[in-house]
Amino acid sequence: MELLFAGRIEDYIREAAIGADPCIFVHVPKTAGTSLRNEIAGFLQPDVNIVVDYTDTSRSFHDRIDDSVTRFLARSAPPPVRFASGHILDRHVTRIRARYPGARFVTFLRSPVDRVVSDYRYQRSTRHPVHRDFIAAVPSLDAYLDIRPEQNKMVQHLVPPELVARGDAAACIDHVMRGYAFVGIQEMYPISFRLLTTLLGQPMWPRVRENVNSENEAERNVTPEQIRRIRDANLLDAALYDHFAGGLATVRDRLAERLTTG
Question: Total structural domains in the chain?
Fold first, then answer.
């Protein structure tokens, strides 16, 4: 990403191109990942969706996702995986990289306020398998904002927990810059999608939007005080987002021209 942010677009596309080795999409919740996954899986085969059974409440999410990654790594059936995705964490990235040293890791980020509100609304919706349990346990957005494990969720997925605990935003940014071939931005979804598919050798514009909350921005009914609380509770996510969104914004026009005509 350093090459891209420096304006060396052709160098970046050449260096970050994804070939025969697996492309691993680290899907941070509510960052347009469901739509992305389905479109990429449509042409990059074989693919694996690393999923957990959300209706199994007998064990923690962490235990269940660990088991899912173990099953993914244990698969031996040919042909080799070309694309895999899931709500995996940095420790899983480490395990997958050891199994597939040539794998390229990609992800998407979203404005922290919008991502938090969208995640809260999704977990209350009928599309979430355990939404009734969630509503009973978390009766309001204000209650949700007090739950520490729900804070800085983008960084939690992409960065080792020791860096998260230190609260070192610069170290978190550096870790993602070094470990990811591509970081897209939900608010710049079309150009981000086009760039990723270009790296995959199949340049295309997005056609699908799935698993999207019905509320639009004007209807989300979030107060200025709640917005302030979200920002204060997600400072690491905000720093990570600002770095990558700012970097992409600086080259957006040149990138759009290259990806449209190049």
Answer: 1
